[in-house]
Amino acid sequence: MPLITRRTVLQGTAGVGALTAFGLRARAANNPLQIAIIAKIRISWFNDLEIGIKNAGKELGVNAWMIAPTTDDAAQQVRAIEDLIAKKVDVIGVVPNDGHALEPVLKRAKDAGIIVITQESPGQKNSDWDIELIQNTGFGEAHMEAFAKAMNYEGKYLVYVGGLTVLLHNQWADAAVELQKKKYPKMQQIGDRFGVSNSVDDAYKTTVDQMRANPDLKGVLAFGVEGPIGAARAVEDRDLIGKFIVVGPIIPSEGAKYIKSGAIEASYLWSPILTGEALVELGKMLAEGKQPTDGMDFPRLGKVQVEMDTHTIRANTLLDINKGTVDELAKQI
């Protein structure tokens, strides 16, 4: 079987059966295509996402770039989308801070003939397609299993997310907490979720404050790549490695030393660079009037699951970040 590459799939010279006509007109108007991706905020994860966006843009011959707000305020994402509508780009991609807040402006984009795609927001209203590189429930449960084991299946813990309106972070947390309640009743979540995982400093301060307020606290489960780093710094500062457990997704190059020291016990992730590439791939595909089909070979992601009811594409590219893998992964992301 000939190798199916990114370019041959998208051009239809290979893997033709995996792509079908969109059923509507292709909406591309610019030459080259203009594909803009809006990040949540300028942090290390989105710096790597931007690398993938630029890589794919260059390879596919499209003009692809990223816009990164200075804060994780949905209003900044709204303003960025409004600006892109005025510029008449072909594709707008967004990783929402608040999916509900974006619904009206995404509808305006679609009404203007712009293709809308999202990431970390399955089932997003007024999005044409959402693409995910992991299975959401499995991602949350994998972290909880590692977290519970490290805590010896008992004790009080905190849950961090990037923001209380960040859909996917909260879905992961839902899956993790549900598993804990079902399998590990001696564990107990303290308080509500803390929306601090988009900031190392906020996660650090919250961890320190909660350690003081709850002397019997045993750990933090943090969804959002800055949260585990901030919590791990608090653990190291207080010489609590092995006594206070931190688990959560990290950028390997940013968190390698904490994995090696044991300040972060376990971590799973997917590649932000690959995510950036996939967003541009998807945007070009849709702009050319094609749609994903279940089981297709999506470039670099392998076979994907396509949920037509929610217009969500799911791959399974989970990375296990541990002492044996972190150095090699840190060379990549």
In short:
The chain is 41% helix and 18% strand. The chain has 333 residues and is α/β, with parallel strands linked by helices.
What do these coordinates show?
The protein has 333 residues and is of the alpha/beta class. The protein has 2 domains: 6-134 and 271-317, Rossmann fold (3-Layer(aba) Sandwich); 136-269, Rossmann fold, CATH 3.40.50. The protein is 41% helix and 18% strand. It contains 11 helices and 17 strands. It has helices spanning 6-11, 44-60, 74-87, 99-111, 136-150, 167-183, 200-213, 227-237, 252-261, 272-287, 326-330; strands at 20-21, 34-38, 63-67, 91-94, 115-119, 129-132, 155-160, 187-189, 217-222, 245-247, 267-269, 290-291, 297-298, 302-303, 305-307, 312-314, 319-321. A 7-stranded mixed sheet has the order 3-2-4-5-6-16-15, with helices on both faces. Helix 6 (167-183) links the parallel strand 7 and strand 8 (187-189). Helix 2 (44-60) packs across helix 10 (272-287), helix 5 (136-150) crosses helix 6 (167-183) and helix 7 crosses helix 8 (227-237). It is elongated, with a radius of gyration of 20 Å. Residues 1-26 have low confidence and may be disordered.
